[in-house]
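Hi there, hope your week has been kind to you so far. It would help a lot if you went through both lines with me. No rush at all, and the record is pasted right below:

***
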Amino acid sequence: MFDLILNRLRGKRILILGFGREGKSTLHFLNKYLPNAVVAVADKNAMEGVIHAGEGYLEAMYDYDIVIKTPGISLKDFDTKGVEITSQTDLFLSQFHAQTIGITGTKGKSTTTSLIYHLLKSSGHDAILTGNIGIPCFDIMEDIKPESIVVYELSAHQLEYVHNSPRVGVLLNIFEEHLDHFGTMSRYAEAKLNIMRYMGEDDTAVVHETLMEEAWSMFVNNIVFSLFDIDDLVDRTALPLIGEHNLLNVKAALLACYAYGVDIRELIPYLYTFKPLEHRLEPVGTFDGVTFVNDSISTIPQATISACEALGRVDFLLLGGFDRGIDYQPLADYLKEHPVPHLLYTGKAGERMMTLLDGVSTGSTTCNTEVTEPVEGPTLYNYASMEEAFAYLAEHAQSGDICLLSPAASSYDQYKNFEERGRKFKTLAQAFKRK
């Protein structure tokens, strides 16, 4: 049933590296299809089922024939010479390459993946969703039929150790991100480019024009989605996805389906029935005259810039969080040219953003001091908790104002993930009252 995968693993001593959702999925698969295999699990955290735990857990890789690595484990500081490393993604693509549309990019991949799935499913195709969207690929393999189209969201972490590419690979963009995992921008970009690195002559890469040089160098067929004119096909005002960045996602989704062999015109009606994902320029509502928008998914400056441009007007912008060391100068330059009246910032990342805006405002304040009205430029307000940010909003927001959470930073200093951050913002917004 999964001969290519099983033949790769059969007779080998196997180490599952990382025991989160995907690691548990891998163990379940191996227990079912290779019940006699020698299998062990390594994870930094000690838990039931983990054989190798603690600070030195990575050393266990040397004792096994093959390592199935999960996405969250970083090996940037570990010598992997002589270690055969694979992953669920690599094994899956070796078996189901011809039936897979893969999607990656620093930003927009979840939206584009979900839109492709929606378009295919709504138009009567047998589409199956998997990957970084929250569904391990080994969990859906038994559902795949000969006519199925697998729509696979691929993170850089999942692509890092692959040696197979999908039949159609969508590369949306590459911005500086995840330097804590990869160490350098170069290593991060190289992982992203793996989505098309192993393509054959019958495969197609759907890429942005800024990435064409890399695409051509890999000798694959290319479709440049950013040059695709859809004005004669689509009523842009009726699209549920707003902003120029989302228009690019729409173009990429349509061309990915086309590259797989689906007629674009049959998909157009279903663009208008797509429901945007939570935490992505999500309208929370208007409460006591103030409109709130949740863009908690924003963890890089380019995403925040796109959000501001999509809305056209922002009165209160919530920025900052965990500092991964990425360059915030593009965001600072944008805010200097397109000032927001109130910049609310938090965490080490927020502090670093504000240093780049030094001299723009004379009305800076912290959560422990009285606000000084700005003479020019925005008021800068440092908050330690979301509640403090909303207390500031209650004091200064006026009816008709727009408040955007688009932090340009990771949430890990205060929250489990961006979803938790976004839910907190929405809860406080829904109870909002001006003073």
About this structure: The two ends are 65 Å apart (CA to CA). The chain has a mean pLDDT of 93. DSSP finds 15 helices and 18 strands in the chain.
